[in-house]
Amino acid sequence: MKNLSMTLALLLGACGGSAPPPGANLAGQHNRSTSEAETTECEGSDGACAQASLLAADDALQGDVQARGINAAFTEALAGNATFFATLQPLLKGKPAIVAYLQQSFPTLASGSLTWITARGEASAHEDLGYTFGWVIFTGPNGIARPGHYMAMWRREKKGEGRGWLLESYLRIRSAPRTPPPAWFGPAAPPEDEGDGVNEQKELSVLEARDADFAALSVSQGQQVSQAIYAAPDAVEMLNDAVFGRDAIVASHAHDQGTSLNWWPTGGVVARSGDIGYTIGNYDFTVTAVTPTAHYPGHYLTIWKRQPDGQWDYIVGAGAYSLL
Asked: What is the pTM of this model?
């Protein structure tokens, strides 16, 4: 983490900020209804179309939240095996557990509202898995708007099952108000080559081992060293502010003295094409500069992309403080 004060702000949340304008979206999309998004279908293999449909699904979820509320919109969007990250909550696994949390936390349309700006979205080459992430504003019943970040993993239904995108994993955390990304950061290029596919479980084992090695190096040599090796050139780290690019991420950890971050993967998914995947798990942020040593536990979501050299590097990651 950049320093102790920034880390505690990340873990405990930050307030302030204003809602983004409706339809604001760096990925080039605008709010549309769910029915409109469902018309974004692709015949055969068309990476650009699949990517457009993914961004449309993300956009449609926002429109549905505005129309029907957080509870109803997310309940409809969830995959059956979804995971959901909520601050000060255990990692919620499976649609029934997530729905119970949503019903308790957002029982009515007036319970709260979400708007967001999508920074980037990308579909896998086999068009079965994709991600979106960006900046979110939660406005509570009292009208106070709180900025944050969100990450979403999406699973596309198989042909004959609707061909829609379902929310497979979702994380939202508080953050500082949005800082615009650097000029070089733009939309992801659509996938071009499907390839022959991979053994998904075998490749997931490789990815989880990569994640575990990343954590081990973070503990033994610090995040400046580990981030330089495991972050993709265009990676984004969702701290109290989003940090764009490997070089900036490495520089942001120059003052990590007196802290240590460890984590361990507990699951994940790899796309059939073997080009995109994600890991989830638990983390322990330790502050050794105080007595007694302080521990801040939580859960994390990390999205990975296979690089031209064949290696998995992470492209965006964040964690939710849990106390549990």
From this structure: 0.87
